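FW: tagging you since you asked about this chain on Friday. Here's the raw sequence from the shared folder, copied in full. Didn't touch anything.
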Amino acid sequence: MKGLFYTFLFLINCTWAFGQETIISDGKAPYHIFSIYFGGGSHYIDQEQIDALYKWLDGIPEVDSHDVSIHGHTDNIGGAEYNQWLSQMRSDNTLQKLLDKGLRTEMISIRDFGQFNPLFDNSTWEGRRKNRRVDIIVWPPIQ
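HL: got it, structure written out here
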């Protein structure tokens, strides 16, 4: 499991572009990852990203039988408490979009990281931009 997490970190680092999907396989089941990016201090998801999210979800066969995890992140601008709140707001808005699409609450888990555990260098503008995101991870349920 730890190896899968590091693989996820590596692949998400390589595929940060808006609306890009990453598929990771641990030899058993594919994991689909989609990222939504936000402006500084914002938790608003624009219609273009909503459309891309829904198109991505439509492309996963039997997505309603999968498990989903939402991981909220921020850059390091602002205090830790504010960034934790912002991360939660981003995750909550993403959750609402998933529920609007018909996914069930019981299949979704949320982790909010705030400014902690950044994948990119927060000392640069580009790194901060890449850290302002929510990652949606979809995988078949463990049986």
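FW: Residues 80-100 form the longest helix (21 residues).
HL: agreed, and Residues 2-39+48-75+86-139 form a domain with the 60s Ribosomal Protein L30; Chain: A; fold (CATH 3.30.1330.60).
FW: great, closing this out.
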